[in-house]
Design goal:
The protein contains 16 helices and 27 strands. With 532 residues, it is of the alpha/beta class. The strands form nine sheets. An eight-stranded mixed β-sheet has the order 2-20-12-15-11-3-4-5, with helices on both faces. A hairpin with a 2-residue loop joins strand 26 and strand 27. Helix 6 (97-109) crosses helix 7 (145-164) and helix 9 (236-242) crosses helix 13. The termini are far apart. 41% of the residues are buried. Residues 1-7, 63-68 and 467-478 have low confidence and may be disordered.
Length: 532
């Protein structure tokens, strides 16, 4: 199909589709556009399936929101917590963790594990004009999120090879958005893929959908440009099909896929414990969660609704239900979703080929700048004037035949980066940096190292109490020590030295350290204000 005729006009069939779908207003300013703008708009319209967009809108809006409201009615009464038989816990099942880790490492050693990174987010809320993965949160090493994650993959490959004696690789599939693709690829090229093999780093792009007014009409960002937005992290499944990613996984012999979001500085990519747990359970789909301890914490919870697993957003749960507690004193609905998932390749293939078209878009009402069709003026709305449609990565839980949940400690594995330091003091570069340094500091203590102050006096270690629970909680506090300071001690350990705290005894046992402390592949560095 031609996007435009010889004189830069829109092809007749495209005009016909726009008119049939009631969207031909997007050509309102065509006579005012120059040749380049006409060609760009014509190409954009040629790729657009107007009938499909209108169908998405009708399904997403239902009967003016009545369908969604009806579905949500009585939600509290239909919710059930995650049953213990499908739950694995890093703290409550400590005796099983080594077996799960061994199973996961064996799978990695057989090159049957891939990781899939959701990296479409721009750093707008962080106050930076580039993708989140390129953010430097101010660690002593100045490593970015991408750099940390790449080095964790390299260390895992090394651990699997050392244990099993065979070379292996973990393919890294990175889903970007249209706005982040080129800058992300350039960043990886500039840094030589952080030591990974180029052929094992695969970039692909999620889809985009036009922003719509409340009446379903496509909005214009400029006179010759459609207002577009990524189709949500659940757009992953359509992108997997359209870019042949699942086929590539099958060609490589991948069985297990770990999916995660870019903005968690503590993420354990291809976590062998999580993968091993899912394999032992025979799961086709799994969710890693952290315990929700505050009923009003704005995080969705993994649970069952009408017997089907899903994530229920915090805004959909009544306060009474959110506050309910079980016999052990924990919140009844405490499986906090952190966008960290396990899928088998076979399950992903079924989703792509069968289930993805059944997924319904979620509607987000937004303030969307747009060109007024009547006046041609750019409008900056003060209140929501339209919608963006998106799918969520967890929307496919409902199709799982064997779903499991793996609970980890928040302080070990979850510290998201969402806001700038100037904002509300939460989920920002400072909290992310402190979370990583606190974790690495604990690793040194657990391996037998000690920290001293400027006078050479030992800083006393105290138990680290997970999630505010008492020291009598199921977590083994003997393996969770921290120093008696409010602010974290500056300590950073390269992922190439240790993936999860392992292998440090030979470096730190019975030794004293001043901070800032960096342990990397070149050795141990105690930094002073004027350098090394």
């Amino acid at each position: 199909m031609e996007a435009a005729g010889a004189e830069g006009d829109v092809a007749a069939d495209v005009r016909q589709r726009l008119a049939a779908g009631g969207q031909d207003h997007v050509l309102r300013f065509w006579p005012e556009l120059d040749g380049a703008a006409r060609r760009a708009l014509a190409a954009e319209l040629c790729r657009m399936d107007v009938a499909e967009i209108n169908r998405f809108f009708r399904r997403a809006r239902g009967d003016g929101g009545g369908a969604a409201a009806a579905a949500a009615a009585g939600l509290d009464a239909r919710m059930e917590p995650v049953p213990r038989d499908v739950l694995g816990s890093a703290s409550r099942d400590r005796g099983l963790v080594p077996r799960w880790e061994s199973r996961g490492l064996a799978e990695i050693a057989a090159s049957r594990v891939a990781v899939l990174l959701l990296a479409g987010g721009q750093g707008t809320r962080l106050g930076v004009p580039y993708p989140k993965g390129m953010c430097d949160v101010g660690l002593p090493s100045r490593k970015t999120l991408f750099h940390l994650q790449a080095q964790r993959l390299r260390r895992l490959q090394q651990m699997a090879e050392e244990q099993h004696g065979t070379p292996c690789h973990i393919p890294w599939y990175i889903m970007t958005s249209g706005r982040t693709m080129e800058s992300t690829k350039e960043f990886f090229q500039k840094h030589r893929y952080f030591g990974l093999k180029k052929e094992n780093v695969i970039f692909f792009q999620q889809g985009m959908l036009p922003a719509l007014g409340f009446d379903g009409k496509i909005l214009l960002e400029e006179k010759g440009k459609i207002a577009m937005a990524p189709d949500g992290n659940g757009g992953l499944y359509r992108a997997l099909g359209s870019h042949g990613i699942v086929d590539d996984m099958e060609r490589r012999g991948v069985h297990s896929v770990h999916v995660y979001c870019v903005d968690n500085i503590l993420v354990k990519v291809a976590d062998p414990r999580f993968i091993g747990f899912c394999l032992e359970k025979g799961a086709d789909c799994g969710a890693k969660v952290v315990e929700k301890t505050n009923p009003t914490e704005p995080v969705g919870v993994v649970c069952r609704v009408d017997g089907v697993y899903q994530v229920v957003e915090y805004s959909e749960i009544s306060l009474g239900t959110a506050q309910r507690r079980g016999p052990d004193g924990r919140l009844l609905f405490n499986a906090g979703n952190i966008a960290n998932h396990y899928f088998t390749t076979a399950f992903l293939k079924d989703v792509v080929n069968t289930y993805e078209p059944q997924l319904q878009h979620h509607v987000a009402e937004k303030k969307i700048p747009h060109v007024d069709i009547t006046t041609g003026q750019l409008v900056q709305p003060e209140k929501p004037n339209g919608i963006k449609m998106e799918k969520f990565v967890f929307d496919i839980f409902q199709f799982s035949k064997r779903f499991v949940v793996y609970e980890v400690l928040r302080e070990d594995e979850f510290s998201p980066l969402k806001n700038a330091d100037s904002q509300n003091g939460k989920d920002n570069p400072t909290t992310a940096r402190h979370a990583l340094m606190s974790l690495h500091h604990c690793w040194v203590l657990n391996a037998g190292g000690h920290f001293v102050d400027e006078n050479g006096t030992h800083i006393p270690a105290i138990p680290r109490i997970p999630n505010g629970r008492s020291a009598a909680s199921p977590a083994d506090v003997n393996d969770n020590l921290k120093d008696a300071n409010d602010l974290p001690i500056q300590c950073e350990i390269s992922p190439l030295v240790s993936y999860g705290g392992e292998g440090l005894e030979q470096l730190v046992k019975d030794r004293e350290f001043r901070t800032p402390l960096i342990i990397d592949e070149d050795g141990i560095h105690e930094l002073v204000k004027n350098g090394l």
